[in-house]
## 1
Amino acid sequence: MPKSIGVLFVASEAEPFIKTGKIGDLAGSLPKSVKALGHDVRVMLPGYGFLNSRRFQIHNLLRMKDIVVPVANDLEKAYIKSSYLTSENQKVLVYFLSNDRYFNREGLYFHPETKKYFADNDERFIFFCRGILETLKRLRWQPNIIHCNDWQCGLIPVYLKTLYKNDPFFKNVKTVFTAYSLASHASFPRNSYAKSGLPAGLFPENDSGMDRLNFLKAGLTYADCVTTFGSKAEKSIRIAPDTELEKILHLRKNNIISMNFQNGNGHNHIAQKLVDIYHDLSKSI
């Protein structure tokens, strides 16, 4: 029997807690399918303040508070809540990375009334990405794989390859980055880059030496494996309108893996395909 793999599935939304699109659908279903194949899967989401704790049976983890997360030359603190993704036969532990300043508001990415993206989305998801790594250390749980879903999680692979590269806790951790679109709102100005704490020069724009903070570029460049979901995502990820992304995708085109639902393939088929990817990455350690 193949060895059980530890997988942290990271996303900005997951059904039934919150869903606005494909990410929420897949992040709510695939972890259960992967666990059914015999693997230790856990999920981590932002701790949005509007989630109904009673309805979803979300509880504070008392030992998981005051987790220090560096953001923009300051130290923010995270606290963790938990619940479960449940099905008839499976129960997957879900962690909610919480911070009232960043997540205790209405709306995920933009204000529900004005439809304008939050001005601090850069800080919110810098906090989320780096907070996940700090939370794993507090949990003392070392997954084999961190599966990052779309731009909101794009800094995790680059953090692991830079600021955390000499941290023995993450020595054998591999990353999968799944892109769903080439969202323009995943790119932030140079001052946002400074907030990330990342070393300078990682993402020069047009050979100018100027670094913008592009979450998508980070994930596509630094993840150990890149996947896409659906024919639409596959087409857009390979024919990117952004020149810098085109260069990255061209360099990585031979190891971009399309995960699609063609020919009647469902979540169980995709879960098996993901497990095969996880196994291959684990073997490379």
Note: The longest strand covers residues 74-86.
## 2
Amino acid sequence: MIRAEQVTDFGTLRQMAVLLERENEKLHDRLGKLTEEVSRLRGEDGGRLQQELDFLKELLARRERALFGDSSEKRSHSDTEKPTSTLPQRGHGPKEQPELPTLEKIHELDEADRVCRACGGTLQEMGQFEESEEVTVVERSFVLVKHRRTKYRCRCNGSVETALGPPKLKAGCRYAPEFAVEVVTSKYLDHIPLERQVRIMAREGLKVDSQTLWDQAETVARLLAPSARALLDRVLASELVHADESWWRLMETRAAKKWWAWSVGTEEAVCYKILDSRSQEAAREILGEYRGIVMADGYGAYGALSRAGPGFTLAHCWAHVRRKFVEIEENYPEACREILTLIGRLYEVEHEAALAGEKADVRSRRAVLRAERSRGIVSEIRAWAFAQRALPESGLGRAVAYMLGIWKGLTLFLDDTRIPLDNNLAERGLRGLVVGRKNHYGSRSKRGTEVAALFYSLIESAKLAGVDPKTYLLKAVHAAIADPKAVTLPADLLA
């Protein structure tokens, strides 16, 4: 008998997979018939046995998806179930480039080519041009600037003065603030590891090592620490914040390798802390004594912290609920189609309210629509949940239990127009950090986690504010060099 682990040919493996799938289908049918026969002979309720059979099928399907499936939350739509709106198709033609400087280059014929092919006369300029555009690149270059500070003295030799030099990150530093900011944005905005930056710089003529680059980034982090603290204070002064967390790797052998990046943010800014646990105390370290509204998923640390004090209001995320049912839709298509349609109607209400335009108008319209339509939809969802019959350990049973377990937080939005339907803002805020984690694998030291959290906070907040992160960091660094206590937030550049 051929064993799968001994086969290396893809075509043969595919044929084996097809045969196994067919055999599984036959066994499922046979098992179903035997289950019905056993139930009939024993005089037992066949519903329970059928639920257990469905659960076994679900377990097998989960394993298949884990091996061969993707992680997308997008659903396939039938002909009768299509999205209510579609985005216009995006083309691949030339794009306008209003940000690029424009250089004009005139091309002329050589003297030898200015001869008429018909009569042999000399060609004269017509004052007209054929025009075209071309995007090119001017490579980045590193320059060694030698500063010569002129010295002055009086004829009496009673006074000697020296001209001021450029601002420096710290006394005796050989690298300019612009260079340090280039290193920081390359790593924490463009996700280029320091070792890779070293190789790129070597190709561009600069000989440097990763320790030197780290020293520049760490120095900038110390200068911008007051701004990072002020940013967190600004976020926690908001009436509603979004909270989430994602794992982070620490490559220091003496410490636990799996740390957690906690985020708390608003529509205008986001802050991160990378901590060694995912506990209630870690949640307290990022949320502090916050007393407003926290939008989060169903992770228990937030609930435990809200009960322990100081007593913030905990709202929960409908997108996480939806995700639970999307994951099991293949095994429970009818039930999941019903609940996903109901949740989709909640989002349709929110989309309609968002068309009102101004923020105050959106809240006013949202209050009306939620009272008229969302409240009824939520009642339908609750009735649907209590009507389900599934094993507690099955996918459907767990999804329903998750939803009902956080029901109070899910329904707070009905009475408070400040509360959105979901926590997607926090998940989008973590995207840059996660991409960076995939590229440079985490941090090498505890100080590295602190520096990473600081720069991700400032950079992602600049993006939310609509400010170029590199421009913001450079202005903030120069302000901090002039005054170590200076606080520069991304929104300050919009004033």
Note: Residues 217-315+427-494 form a domain with the Nucleotidyltransferase; domain 5 fold (CATH 3.30.420).
